[in-house]
Amino acid sequence: MNRICIAITSLLMSTAAASAQEWTIGLGASDFGDAGQDSVALDLEYRHTPFVEKRVLSVAWGANFGVTGEGDAFVGGGIWSRWQWDSGWFIDNSIMPGLYEAGTDGNELGSGFEIRSLLGVGYQFDNGHAVSAAISHKSNASLAEDNPGMNVYSLRYHFKF
Fold first, then answer.
1. Among 63, 102, 55, 98, which Cα is nearest to 79's?
2. How far apart are CA 103 and CA 117, in angstroms?
3. What pTM does this model have?
4. Pairing between strand 52-54 and 73-84?
5. Of 46, 48, 132, 54, which Cα lies nearest the Cα of 89?
6. What's the rounded Cα separation, in Å, for the pair 144 and 140?
7. Nearest-angstrom CA–CA distance, 67 and 43
8. Pairing relation of β-strands 150-160 and 130-139?
9. What are the φ and ψ backbone dihedral angles of 12, each rounded to 5 degrees?
């Protein structure tokens, strides 16, 4: 858990000086399939100002911290994109490699290095805030001998700055 605490502190320190575009908080449930202990899941995600903005597509760097009721923790960073239409509807996706630590026996994912991918669908209000539903998946991409993976299903609220 010390590795995760150090990584979170570094993440917060590096993003505090940047002008944030968006913070997202998600609440949902983890799903380890037949192997692990499922529980409530909480996600906090930071999205920087996009470095690509083309018609309906935005691409930017982001960071994610997730924890479950069983004490499983993930911190990672990578790239996210959003397909946003004038109607307010959007599709989010991201790929964020990072560090994972199981909080309960049986919730191990095969290594401390995991890759989190996310797909979400949402609606943005006129004030810039948004709501979405998302599914994320954590896996080591078979880089380790064991690769059980886990999913998180969540409802998310997005705060734009």
1. 63
2. 21
3. 0.85
4. unpaired
5. 132
6. 7
7. 7
8. antiparallel
9. -65, -40
Among candidate residues 71, 82, 111, 116, the one with its CA nearest the CA of residue 98? 116
Structure tokens at 36: 């692990």
Token representation of residue 78: 């990578």
**3-state SS string for the chain:** CHHHHHHHHHHHHHHHCCCEEEEEEEEEEEECCCCCCCCEEEEEEEEECCCEEECCEEEEEEEEEEEECCCCEEEEEEEEEEEECCCCEEEEEEEEEEEEECCCCCCCCCCCEEEEEEEEEEEECCCCCEEEEEEEEEECCCCCCCCCCEEEEEEEEEEEC
**For 67-112, what is each residue's pLDDT tens digit?**
999 999 999 999 999 999 999 999 999 999 999 999 998 899 999 9
